[in-house]
Amino acid sequence: MTTRIKVGIRVRPFLDSEKEKGYANSRVQIDEQTKEIMIAEDGRRERKTFKFDYVFTPNNNQLQVYEQANIDYLLNKVVEGYHCTIFAYGQTGSGKTHTMEGYEYELAPPKESNKEGGNSAPKPRPKQHQNPERFGIIPRAVSALFDKLKAKEGGEFNVTCSFLQIYNEKIYDLLNPNSIKQNSADGTPVLSQGLRLRWNQRDQFQVENLFVFDCKSAEEVMNFFHYGIRNRVTASHKLNMASSRSHTILTLKVESIDLSTQSSSFSKLELVDLAGSERIGQTGTEGKLAKESIDINKSLFILRQVITTLSDIHRVSNKQKDQYQHIPYRESKLTSLLKQSIGGNSYCLMLACINPNDSFIDENISTLNYASKATYIKNEPIRNDDPKNKVIKDLKQENNRLRFELDKANQHIQFVTNLNNSGSGFSSNHPPNCCLPTCQYGGGAQPSSELTPSQKARMSIAMANQE
After folding, report:
1. How far is CA 389 from CA 72, 163, 253, 261, in A?
2. Is 193 one of the annotated binding-site residues?
3. Which of 29, 144, 166, 458 sits CB 3.0–4.6 Å from 38 for a disulfide?
Protein backbone atom coordinates (compact mmCIF):
# COMPACT_ATOMS: atom_id res chain seq x y z
CA MET A 1 0.00 0.00 0.00
CA THR A 2 1.40 3.38 -1.05
CA THR A 3 0.37 6.75 0.35
CA ARG A 4 1.58 10.31 -0.07
CA ILE A 5 2.91 12.49 2.72
CA LYS A 6 0.03 14.74 3.68
CA VAL A 7 0.92 18.43 3.93
CA GLY A 8 -0.93 21.25 5.66
CA ILE A 9 -0.10 24.97 5.70
CA ARG A 10 -0.85 27.15 8.68
CA VAL A 11 -0.68 30.95 8.50
CA ARG A 12 -0.39 32.22 12.05
CA PRO A 13 -2.16 35.41 13.22
CA PHE A 14 -0.30 38.59 14.09
CA LEU A 15 0.79 38.96 17.69
CA ASP A 16 -0.38 41.98 19.66
CA SER A 17 3.13 43.41 19.61
CA GLU A 18 3.23 43.05 15.81
CA LYS A 19 -0.10 44.80 15.42
CA GLU A 20 1.18 47.70 17.50
CA LYS A 21 4.15 48.03 15.16
CA GLY A 22 1.84 48.20 12.14
CA TYR A 23 2.85 44.92 10.50
CA ALA A 24 0.64 43.99 7.55
CA ASN A 25 -0.13 41.12 5.19
CA SER A 26 -0.64 42.08 1.57
CA ARG A 27 1.25 39.20 -0.05
CA VAL A 28 -0.37 36.00 1.25
CA GLN A 29 -3.88 34.95 0.26
CA ILE A 30 -5.66 31.76 1.33
CA ASP A 31 -8.48 29.94 -0.46
CA GLU A 32 -9.99 27.46 2.00
CA GLN A 33 -12.31 25.96 -0.62
CA THR A 34 -9.60 25.00 -3.11
CA LYS A 35 -6.93 24.55 -0.38
CA GLU A 36 -4.58 26.93 -2.15
CA ILE A 37 -2.08 29.56 -0.99
CA MET A 38 -1.37 32.51 -3.30
CA ILE A 39 1.85 34.51 -2.87
CA ALA A 40 2.66 37.84 -4.52
CA GLU A 41 6.37 37.87 -5.39
CA ASP A 42 8.49 40.97 -5.86
CA GLY A 43 8.42 42.35 -9.39
CA ARG A 44 5.66 40.00 -10.58
CA ARG A 45 2.02 40.84 -11.22
CA GLU A 46 0.75 37.27 -11.11
CA ARG A 47 0.63 35.46 -7.81
CA LYS A 48 2.34 32.12 -7.36
CA THR A 49 -0.14 29.42 -6.34
CA PHE A 50 0.50 26.38 -4.14
CA LYS A 51 -2.04 23.61 -3.49
CA PHE A 52 -1.99 21.41 -0.38
CA ASP A 53 -4.05 18.81 1.47
CA TYR A 54 -5.00 21.26 4.23
CA VAL A 55 -4.79 25.03 4.66
CA PHE A 56 -5.40 26.93 7.89
CA THR A 57 -6.04 30.65 8.15
CA PRO A 58 -5.12 32.91 11.08
CA ASN A 59 -8.73 32.47 12.25
CA ASN A 60 -8.44 28.70 12.75
CA ASN A 61 -7.98 27.76 16.40
CA GLN A 62 -6.03 24.81 17.78
CA LEU A 63 -8.98 22.41 17.88
CA GLN A 64 -9.90 23.18 14.27
CA VAL A 65 -6.34 22.50 13.13
CA TYR A 66 -6.34 19.19 15.00
CA GLU A 67 -9.68 18.05 13.59
CA GLN A 68 -9.30 19.29 10.01
CA ALA A 69 -5.78 17.86 9.68
CA ASN A 70 -7.36 14.45 10.33
CA ILE A 71 -5.08 13.58 13.25
CA ASP A 72 -7.58 10.97 14.48
CA TYR A 73 -7.07 8.99 11.27
CA LEU A 74 -3.33 8.76 11.98
CA LEU A 75 -3.97 7.69 15.58
CA ASN A 76 -6.28 4.93 14.35
CA LYS A 77 -3.43 3.69 12.17
CA VAL A 78 -1.12 3.61 15.20
CA VAL A 79 -3.70 1.47 17.04
CA GLU A 80 -3.84 -0.85 14.01
CA GLY A 81 -0.06 -1.36 14.12
CA TYR A 82 1.37 1.25 11.72
CA HIS A 83 4.06 3.89 12.34
CA CYS A 84 2.95 7.54 12.09
CA THR A 85 4.83 10.83 12.23
CA ILE A 86 3.62 14.42 12.59
CA PHE A 87 6.16 17.21 12.24
CA ALA A 88 6.08 21.01 12.10
CA TYR A 89 8.34 22.87 9.68
CA GLY A 90 9.00 26.55 8.97
CA GLN A 91 10.92 29.71 9.73
CA THR A 92 11.68 30.71 13.32
CA GLY A 93 8.75 32.53 14.88
CA SER A 94 6.21 31.10 12.41
CA GLY A 95 4.18 29.18 15.01
CA LYS A 96 5.59 25.63 14.89
CA THR A 97 5.90 25.12 18.65
CA HIS A 98 2.53 26.77 19.19
CA THR A 99 0.99 24.32 16.71
CA MET A 100 2.62 21.30 18.33
CA GLU A 101 2.45 22.33 22.02
CA GLY A 102 0.24 25.37 22.38
CA TYR A 103 1.81 26.41 25.68
CA GLU A 104 2.35 30.00 26.76
CA TYR A 105 5.92 30.88 27.73
CA GLU A 106 7.42 33.43 30.06
CA LEU A 107 10.96 34.54 30.84
CA ALA A 108 12.25 32.97 34.04
CA PRO A 109 13.81 35.45 36.48
CA PRO A 110 17.63 35.54 36.32
CA LYS A 111 19.38 33.39 38.89
CA GLU A 112 21.92 34.94 41.20
CA SER A 113 25.36 33.47 40.63
CA ASN A 114 26.80 31.74 43.66
CA LYS A 115 30.37 31.82 42.44
CA GLU A 116 31.04 34.65 40.03
CA GLY A 117 28.54 37.20 41.21
CA GLY A 118 26.91 37.65 37.82
CA ASN A 119 23.37 37.12 36.56
CA SER A 120 22.36 34.53 33.98
CA ALA A 121 20.37 35.50 30.91
CA PRO A 122 16.61 35.03 31.39
CA LYS A 123 15.49 31.64 30.04
CA PRO A 124 12.06 31.03 28.46
CA ARG A 125 9.92 28.50 30.30
CA PRO A 126 6.28 27.33 30.05
CA LYS A 127 3.86 29.09 32.36
CA GLN A 128 2.66 27.02 35.29
CA HIS A 129 -1.04 27.35 34.42
CA GLN A 130 -2.08 26.75 30.82
CA ASN A 131 -5.34 27.28 28.98
CA PRO A 132 -6.58 23.91 27.61
CA GLU A 133 -8.15 25.66 24.62
CA ARG A 134 -4.64 26.60 23.50
CA PHE A 135 -3.36 23.02 23.62
CA GLY A 136 -1.72 21.94 20.39
CA ILE A 137 -1.35 18.62 18.62
CA ILE A 138 0.88 16.88 21.18
CA PRO A 139 -1.41 17.12 24.25
CA ARG A 140 -4.50 16.35 22.18
CA ALA A 141 -2.94 13.42 20.29
CA VAL A 142 -1.52 11.79 23.42
CA SER A 143 -4.89 11.95 25.18
CA ALA A 144 -6.80 10.68 22.13
CA LEU A 145 -4.37 7.80 21.57
CA PHE A 146 -4.90 6.40 25.06
CA ASP A 147 -8.67 6.79 24.66
CA LYS A 148 -8.56 4.75 21.46
CA LEU A 149 -6.35 2.05 22.97
CA LYS A 150 -8.62 1.68 26.00
CA ALA A 151 -11.71 1.48 23.77
CA LYS A 152 -10.25 -1.37 21.70
CA GLU A 153 -12.06 -4.59 22.62
CA GLY A 154 -10.40 -7.97 23.06
CA GLY A 155 -6.89 -6.67 23.47
CA GLU A 156 -4.23 -5.37 25.78
CA PHE A 157 -1.63 -2.69 25.17
CA ASN A 158 1.61 -1.34 26.54
CA VAL A 159 2.92 2.19 25.84
CA THR A 160 6.46 3.47 26.30
CA CYS A 161 7.68 7.04 25.99
CA SER A 162 11.02 8.63 25.05
CA PHE A 163 11.95 12.27 24.39
CA LEU A 164 15.12 13.57 22.74
CA GLN A 165 16.55 16.71 21.22
CA ILE A 166 19.12 17.26 18.47
CA TYR A 167 21.26 20.25 19.42
CA ASN A 168 24.38 21.31 17.49
CA GLU A 169 24.15 18.00 15.59
CA LYS A 170 24.31 15.93 18.80
CA ILE A 171 21.53 13.86 20.35
CA TYR A 172 20.56 14.45 23.99
CA ASP A 173 18.05 12.63 26.17
CA LEU A 174 15.56 15.13 27.57
CA LEU A 175 14.38 12.61 30.18
CA ASN A 176 17.85 11.82 31.52
CA PRO A 177 18.74 14.29 34.32
CA ASN A 178 22.45 13.68 33.68
CA SER A 179 22.18 14.60 30.00
CA ILE A 180 21.77 18.36 30.54
CA LYS A 181 22.74 20.32 33.62
CA GLN A 182 22.70 24.01 34.39
CA ASN A 183 25.96 25.88 34.84
CA SER A 184 26.04 27.11 38.43
CA ALA A 185 27.82 30.26 37.28
CA ASP A 186 25.55 31.67 34.60
CA GLY A 187 22.68 29.22 34.24
CA THR A 188 23.65 28.14 30.72
CA PRO A 189 23.20 24.44 29.83
CA VAL A 190 26.15 22.12 30.31
CA LEU A 191 25.75 19.28 27.83
CA SER A 192 27.14 15.76 27.89
CA GLN A 193 28.87 14.19 24.91
CA GLY A 194 25.57 13.18 23.38
CA LEU A 195 24.15 9.76 22.49
CA ARG A 196 25.34 7.52 19.70
CA LEU A 197 23.22 6.82 16.64
CA ARG A 198 23.52 3.28 15.32
CA TRP A 199 22.23 1.51 12.21
CA ASN A 200 20.50 -1.78 13.00
CA GLN A 201 19.58 -4.82 10.95
CA ARG A 202 15.99 -3.70 10.41
CA ASP A 203 17.14 -0.91 8.08
CA GLN A 204 16.65 1.94 10.54
CA PHE A 205 18.62 4.17 12.89
CA GLN A 206 18.45 3.70 16.65
CA VAL A 207 19.65 5.92 19.49
CA GLU A 208 21.71 4.08 22.07
CA ASN A 209 21.11 4.40 25.83
CA LEU A 210 17.98 6.50 25.41
CA PHE A 211 15.75 6.46 28.50
CA VAL A 212 12.40 4.74 27.83
CA PHE A 213 9.55 4.79 30.35
CA ASP A 214 6.40 2.67 30.61
CA CYS A 215 3.30 4.85 30.69
CA LYS A 216 -0.13 3.68 31.84
CA SER A 217 -2.00 6.89 31.02
CA ALA A 218 -1.87 10.09 29.01
CA GLU A 219 -1.15 12.00 32.22
CA GLU A 220 2.07 10.04 32.75
CA VAL A 221 3.22 10.78 29.20
CA MET A 222 2.50 14.50 29.62
CA ASN A 223 4.40 14.57 32.91
CA PHE A 224 7.47 13.23 31.10
CA PHE A 225 6.87 15.68 28.25
CA HIS A 226 6.70 18.64 30.63
CA TYR A 227 9.89 17.51 32.33
CA GLY A 228 11.58 17.23 28.95
CA ILE A 229 10.64 20.65 27.60
CA ARG A 230 12.13 22.23 30.71
CA ASN A 231 15.46 20.67 29.65
CA ARG A 232 15.18 21.71 26.02
CA VAL A 233 17.59 24.40 24.86
CA THR A 234 15.70 27.63 24.17
CA ALA A 235 16.62 31.30 23.83
CA SER A 236 15.08 34.68 23.05
CA HIS A 237 15.82 36.83 20.02
CA LYS A 238 14.13 39.53 17.96
CA LEU A 239 11.71 37.19 16.17
CA ASN A 240 10.81 34.81 18.97
CA MET A 241 10.68 35.16 22.74
CA ALA A 242 10.92 31.36 23.21
CA SER A 243 12.96 30.15 20.25
CA SER A 244 13.74 26.42 20.13
CA ARG A 245 17.45 25.95 19.56
CA SER A 246 17.06 22.22 18.93
CA HIS A 247 14.86 19.72 17.12
CA THR A 248 12.78 17.60 19.50
CA ILE A 249 11.18 14.18 18.92
CA LEU A 250 8.62 12.73 21.34
CA THR A 251 8.12 9.02 20.59
CA LEU A 252 5.31 6.81 21.87
CA LYS A 253 5.78 3.11 21.12
CA VAL A 254 2.71 0.89 21.35
CA GLU A 255 2.61 -2.89 21.73
CA SER A 256 -0.88 -4.26 21.10
CA ILE A 257 -1.88 -7.84 21.95
CA ASP A 258 -4.96 -9.56 20.49
CA LEU A 259 -6.17 -11.90 23.24
CA SER A 260 -8.24 -14.04 20.87
CA THR A 261 -5.30 -14.97 18.62
CA GLN A 262 -2.45 -14.17 21.03
CA SER A 263 -0.85 -12.16 18.21
CA SER A 264 0.87 -8.84 18.79
CA SER A 265 1.90 -5.77 16.80
CA PHE A 266 4.30 -2.90 17.40
CA SER A 267 3.81 0.69 16.26
CA LYS A 268 5.05 4.16 17.13
CA LEU A 269 3.84 7.73 17.04
CA GLU A 270 6.53 10.38 16.53
CA LEU A 271 5.69 14.01 17.31
CA VAL A 272 8.42 16.28 15.97
CA ASP A 273 8.95 19.99 16.65
CA LEU A 274 11.71 21.28 14.38
CA ALA A 275 13.81 24.32 15.15
CA GLY A 276 13.13 27.10 12.66
CA SER A 277 15.40 28.30 9.90
CA GLU A 278 17.01 31.64 10.75
CA ARG A 279 18.63 34.62 9.12
CA ILE A 280 21.10 36.13 11.56
CA GLY A 281 20.45 39.61 10.19
CA GLN A 282 16.78 39.31 11.15
CA THR A 283 17.14 37.52 14.50
CA GLY A 284 20.03 39.67 15.71
CA THR A 285 21.79 36.68 17.26
CA GLU A 286 25.48 36.86 18.12
CA GLY A 287 28.20 34.59 19.44
CA LYS A 288 26.85 31.27 20.70
CA LEU A 289 23.34 31.87 19.36
CA ALA A 290 24.78 32.65 15.92
CA LYS A 291 26.65 29.33 15.94
CA GLU A 292 23.41 27.56 16.92
CA SER A 293 21.68 29.23 13.97
CA ILE A 294 24.34 27.86 11.60
CA ASP A 295 23.89 24.30 12.93
CA ILE A 296 20.08 24.59 12.75
CA ASN A 297 20.21 25.82 9.16
CA LYS A 298 22.66 23.06 8.22
CA SER A 299 20.41 20.23 9.44
CA LEU A 300 17.37 21.84 7.80
CA PHE A 301 19.37 22.16 4.57
CA ILE A 302 19.95 18.38 4.58
CA LEU A 303 16.24 17.83 5.30
CA ARG A 304 15.38 19.99 2.28
CA GLN A 305 17.85 17.98 0.17
CA VAL A 306 16.14 14.74 1.20
CA ILE A 307 12.70 16.20 0.41
CA THR A 308 13.89 17.47 -2.98
CA THR A 309 15.55 14.18 -3.95
CA LEU A 310 12.55 12.04 -2.96
CA SER A 311 10.13 14.38 -4.67
CA ASP A 312 12.20 14.24 -7.89
CA ILE A 313 12.29 10.43 -7.73
CA HIS A 314 8.51 10.19 -7.62
CA ARG A 315 8.05 12.69 -10.46
CA VAL A 316 10.42 11.17 -13.05
CA SER A 317 10.10 8.04 -15.17
CA ASN A 318 11.53 4.71 -14.07
CA LYS A 319 14.42 5.05 -16.53
CA GLN A 320 15.47 8.37 -14.96
CA LYS A 321 15.33 7.11 -11.35
CA ASP A 322 18.79 5.56 -11.61
CA GLN A 323 20.38 9.00 -11.30
CA TYR A 324 18.79 9.43 -7.84
CA GLN A 325 20.40 6.47 -6.11
CA HIS A 326 21.77 8.53 -3.21
CA ILE A 327 19.36 10.02 -0.68
CA PRO A 328 21.41 11.94 1.94
CA TYR A 329 19.72 10.60 5.07
CA ARG A 330 23.04 9.88 6.80
CA GLU A 331 24.40 13.41 6.42
CA SER A 332 22.33 14.67 9.36
CA LYS A 333 21.13 13.21 12.67
CA LEU A 334 17.69 14.66 12.00
CA THR A 335 17.19 13.03 8.60
CA SER A 336 18.65 9.76 9.88
CA LEU A 337 15.97 9.60 12.58
CA LEU A 338 13.23 10.65 10.13
CA LYS A 339 14.20 8.04 7.53
CA GLN A 340 11.15 5.86 8.20
CA SER A 341 8.87 8.92 8.16
CA ILE A 342 10.02 10.56 4.91
CA GLY A 343 10.07 8.09 2.05
CA GLY A 344 9.84 5.09 4.39
CA ASN A 345 7.18 2.82 5.87
CA SER A 346 5.20 5.32 7.99
CA TYR A 347 2.15 7.48 7.59
CA CYS A 348 3.33 11.09 7.73
CA LEU A 349 1.82 14.55 8.16
CA MET A 350 3.86 17.71 7.59
CA LEU A 351 2.54 20.99 8.96
CA ALA A 352 4.36 23.94 7.42
CA CYS A 353 3.94 27.24 9.28
CA ILE A 354 4.41 30.69 7.78
CA ASN A 355 4.55 34.21 9.16
CA PRO A 356 2.00 36.58 7.51
CA ASN A 357 4.32 39.58 7.75
CA ASP A 358 5.25 41.03 4.36
CA SER A 359 8.85 41.34 5.54
CA PHE A 360 9.25 37.55 5.44
CA ILE A 361 7.99 36.90 1.94
CA ASP A 362 11.23 35.18 0.84
CA GLU A 363 11.15 32.79 3.82
CA ASN A 364 7.46 32.05 3.18
CA ILE A 365 8.09 31.23 -0.48
CA SER A 366 10.95 28.91 0.50
CA THR A 367 8.75 27.13 3.07
CA LEU A 368 5.93 26.73 0.55
CA ASN A 369 8.29 25.45 -2.16
CA TYR A 370 9.63 22.62 0.02
CA ALA A 371 6.20 21.86 1.47
CA SER A 372 4.90 21.56 -2.09
CA LYS A 373 7.72 19.16 -2.98
CA ALA A 374 6.86 17.02 0.05
CA THR A 375 3.38 16.37 -1.38
CA TYR A 376 5.01 14.24 -4.12
CA ILE A 377 6.81 11.94 -1.69
CA LYS A 378 5.29 8.48 -1.38
CA ASN A 379 5.59 6.21 1.65
CA GLU A 380 4.72 2.54 1.87
CA PRO A 381 3.23 1.95 5.34
CA ILE A 382 3.37 -1.62 6.60
CA ARG A 383 1.70 -3.24 9.57
CA ASN A 384 4.37 -4.05 12.12
CA ASP A 385 3.40 -7.52 13.32
CA ASP A 386 5.59 -9.41 15.76
CA PRO A 387 8.02 -11.54 13.64
CA LYS A 388 6.97 -14.58 15.68
CA ASN A 389 3.42 -14.10 14.43
CA LYS A 390 4.59 -14.42 10.83
CA VAL A 391 6.49 -17.64 11.60
CA ILE A 392 3.42 -19.14 13.29
CA LYS A 393 1.18 -18.03 10.43
CA ASP A 394 3.51 -19.55 7.82
CA LEU A 395 3.68 -22.84 9.76
CA LYS A 396 -0.11 -23.02 10.00
CA GLN A 397 -0.44 -22.41 6.26
CA GLU A 398 2.13 -25.14 5.53
CA ASN A 399 0.33 -27.53 7.88
CA ASN A 400 -3.01 -26.88 6.15
CA ARG A 401 -1.41 -27.43 2.74
CA LEU A 402 0.09 -30.77 3.79
CA ARG A 403 -3.22 -31.88 5.34
CA PHE A 404 -5.00 -31.06 2.09
CA GLU A 405 -2.49 -33.05 0.01
CA LEU A 406 -2.69 -35.98 2.44
CA ASP A 407 -6.50 -36.05 2.23
CA LYS A 408 -6.32 -35.93 -1.56
CA ALA A 409 -3.84 -38.84 -1.63
CA ASN A 410 -6.03 -40.92 0.70
CA GLN A 411 -9.07 -40.30 -1.49
CA HIS A 412 -7.13 -41.45 -4.55
CA ILE A 413 -5.97 -44.66 -2.82
CA GLN A 414 -9.53 -45.38 -1.67
CA PHE A 415 -10.87 -44.85 -5.18
CA VAL A 416 -8.33 -47.22 -6.79
CA THR A 417 -8.97 -49.83 -4.08
CA ASN A 418 -12.74 -49.70 -4.64
CA LEU A 419 -12.25 -49.92 -8.39
CA ASN A 420 -10.11 -53.04 -8.03
CA ASN A 421 -12.58 -54.61 -5.62
CA SER A 422 -15.52 -54.01 -7.98
CA GLY A 423 -14.08 -56.49 -10.55
CA SER A 424 -12.63 -59.11 -8.20
CA GLY A 425 -15.71 -61.32 -7.70
CA PHE A 426 -15.56 -61.23 -3.93
CA SER A 427 -18.26 -62.96 -1.94
CA SER A 428 -20.86 -60.77 -0.33
CA ASN A 429 -19.25 -61.47 3.03
CA HIS A 430 -15.87 -60.24 1.87
CA PRO A 431 -14.82 -56.95 3.44
CA PRO A 432 -15.26 -54.43 0.61
CA ASN A 433 -12.07 -52.53 1.43
CA CYS A 434 -9.89 -55.57 1.79
CA CYS A 435 -6.90 -55.30 -0.53
CA LEU A 436 -5.00 -58.41 0.56
CA PRO A 437 -4.34 -61.02 -2.16
CA THR A 438 -5.95 -63.68 0.02
CA CYS A 439 -8.05 -63.58 3.17
CA GLN A 440 -10.10 -65.82 5.41
CA TYR A 441 -13.15 -65.34 3.19
CA GLY A 442 -11.42 -67.10 0.34
CA GLY A 443 -11.38 -64.13 -1.94
CA GLY A 444 -8.71 -61.72 -2.94
CA ALA A 445 -8.21 -58.64 -5.02
CA GLN A 446 -6.91 -59.30 -8.48
CA PRO A 447 -3.59 -57.65 -9.25
CA SER A 448 -3.83 -55.08 -12.01
CA SER A 449 -1.79 -57.39 -14.30
CA GLU A 450 -4.63 -59.98 -14.13
CA LEU A 451 -7.40 -57.50 -15.02
CA THR A 452 -9.19 -57.86 -18.33
CA PRO A 453 -8.45 -55.26 -21.03
CA SER A 454 -11.86 -53.64 -20.51
CA GLN A 455 -11.25 -53.36 -16.74
CA LYS A 456 -7.83 -51.82 -17.33
CA ALA A 457 -9.37 -49.28 -19.71
CA ARG A 458 -12.10 -48.41 -17.25
CA MET A 459 -9.55 -47.96 -14.47
CA SER A 460 -7.30 -45.71 -16.62
CA ILE A 461 -10.24 -43.50 -17.57
CA ALA A 462 -11.45 -43.30 -13.98
CA MET A 463 -7.97 -42.42 -12.69
CA ALA A 464 -7.62 -39.70 -15.32
CA ASN A 465 -10.94 -38.20 -14.33
CA GLN A 466 -10.00 -38.39 -10.66
CA GLU A 467 -6.82 -36.41 -11.31
Report:
1. 27, 29, 19, 10
2. no
3. 29
